[in-house]
Amino acid sequence: MSARVVVIGVGNPLRGDDGVGPAAVEALRGRVPDGTVLAVSDGEPARMLDLWRGADTVVVVEALRARPSRPGQLHTLTVADAAARTAGAASTHALGLGECLALAEALDQLPSSLVVHAMEVADVELGARLSEAVRSALPGLADRVAASVRQAYERNHER
User: Which molecular-function annotations from GO does this UniProt entry contain (predicted)?
Assistant: First the structure.
């Protein structure tokens, strides 16, 4: 198993708070160890699987629509939690992370370690900017993702 760590920020920066995943990836530049793959995706399952192919650890950063909504609220999800919480309508994308995880499992392409850091969002309208609540919570999200990356490298070093 490789020690490759991939961080994928899922979302569309042109759709307001849906851009939180890409914004978090940008905030990580210079904060994670060299060799960490930082990528942005629109969430299309086949492209997601290509991005994490061969990775030991994958950290996904995603916008989450919840009811009631608490914009800026952070969640850390396991694969099972993410599949349940992001299936169907919870995603801001046509095909959500739940479908991507189901496809990866069916194709036996789940990485050995996958964690999802999600932030509840409000405004995902085309042309909107990140809301104040999401912008304010972005440093905390980046801190959580950076900690997950450090933990992945520590686990890989212990092997």
Answer: aspartic-type endopeptidase activity; enzyme activator activity
Mean pLDDT of successive 10-residue segments in the chain (159 residues)? 83 93 96 94 88 92 87 87 56 58 72 90 88 96 96 80
CB count, 10 Å around CB of 38? 19
Annotate 104-133 with DSSP letters as a single string. HHHTT---SEEEEEEEE-----TTPPPPHH
CATH of the structural domain 5-158, one choice from 3.90.1150.10, 3.40.50.1450, 3.30.70.360, 3.30.499.10: 3.40.50.1450
CA distance 63 to 128: 15
Residue 88 has what pLDDT? 43
Cα gap 120→86, rounded to integer Å: 11
DSSP 97: H
Reduced to 3 states, what is the DSSP secondary structure of residue 15? coil
pTM: 0.86
